[in-house]
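Lecture 7 notes: from sequence to structure.

We start with a single chain of 106 residues. Read the sequence below before looking at the structure.
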Amino acid sequence: MKKPDNLKRVIVDFKKLTPEILKLLVDKYPDGYDEDHIIEFRNAKNELIEAVEVTTEDTKYLVKVSTKLVKTMENYDEDDYEDFDDDDPEAVQDPIEPSEEQDDDF
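Now the structure, written as C-alpha cells:
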C-alpha cells in the first residue's frame, strides 16, 4: 500500500510557469516527456486536463501539457533566467517560431 504524501498540489498553466518549475521539468525529462509521463484528470469544470508531474520538497506540480511547454523545454537555457527570481511567472516567455518573427527590413 502506497503511503499518502502530504504535499501541496498545484496545477500550473504555461502562463504561470516559473524558472524554478521549468528547471525541474527539464531536469526530470531531459529528453522531453512522452505519453507514459502524462497524467490525465478532470478539473473542477469537468474538462480533461493532461499534465506532467514534478515534485519539490513540499509541493507536487502538475504542469499542463502544451506545444508552448514542449518548445520552451527544448530551448531551455538556465542562463536565460539568471536575472529573474525562481518564482517569477513573468520570466518564462511564449516561445516564438522563427517564421513568426517580423522582418523589419521591409
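Residues 19-28 form the longest helix (10 residues). Keep this in mind for problem set 3.
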